[in-house]
Amino acid sequence: MAATNTEAAEYNERKLENKVAVVTGGNSGIGRAIAERFHAQGASVAIFGRNQETLNETLDALGGEDESLAVRGDVTNPEDLDKLYAAVEERFGRVDVLVANAGVGKIRPFDEVDEDFFDTVTDIDFKGAFFTVQKALPLLSDGGSVMFTTTGATEKGLPGMSVYAAAKAALRSLTRTLAAELAPREVRVNAISPGPVETSLVERMGIPTEQATEELGKITEQQPLDRFGRPEEVAAAAVFLASEDASYVTGAKIDVDGGMAQV
Ligand SMILES: NC(=O)c1ccc[n+]([C@@H]2O[C@H](COP(=O)([O-])OP(=O)(O)OC[C@H]3O[C@@H](n4cnc5c(N)ncnc54)[C@H](OP(=O)(O)O)[C@@H]3O)[C@@H](O)[C@H]2O)c1
Prior knowledge:
single chain; seven-stranded parallel β-sheet; binds NADP nicotinamide-adenine-dinucleotide phosphate; oxidoreductase activity; Oxidoreductase ykvO; oxidoreductase
């Protein structure tokens, strides 16, 4: 059946008009694509990351200081998270959409994992994301949307990913718990699970980039869609989860992974 004019008009509206969104890791790769899509869909966006140069570049792409906010900090440092939310409160007064996306994809064979490596990865990927959400609660609007970036690696046994995949599996679990705990406030909590996506994560895996690309290529060969994903393809799912289109979706994980987890 053809859409009525009203339905078509609603479909064409910007999806995130009047919403305030915070995106950690919003200065690179997937997070940057999410921040840019949110901005294009009408949201006021705050990004958070460690690298001042890429924060500045991304802020420019988000309409500059007049329209958006960039805060420098580390998700493993509670005081930096406090600084983020103080700045967001002062500027926008609330958070409607929170994307706990900052993360590292470092890999290392199980027998070579030492305590430092274990702590670095779990502190950023699990503990950092955990407190990113907890510390946002006082500002988080009733009816808001929270999402974590997990990974298709939680669904497969991939060599070298013992710490990374487990930290992200913990986030998948947290997604379910928080969906239940925050439901009385009608806050929806979901996960987006990317497969291999072309970002600087590949260069930061802790192994030579060529080797990393080759290893990830072996994963895509097993997928129905045998290619790397693009950050924008992940961002499209984030817009859906952030918007009223996903008003009945919580506790879920959306795989944006070329079929990696399901086929
Ligand atoms: N690319 C993939 O294939 C893939 C697949 C599955 C899941 N993911 C997940 O997607 C998310 C985004 O990764 P990406 O691929 O877009 O990689 P990326 O381009 O390297 O971006 C990672 C982002 O996280 C930020 N970040 C890392 N550690 C941080 C810390 N301690 N404090 C604050 N910010 C921190 C980085 O900020 P700075 O640059 O300022 O350090 C950067 O903005 C990650 O959670 C990753 O695990 C990626």
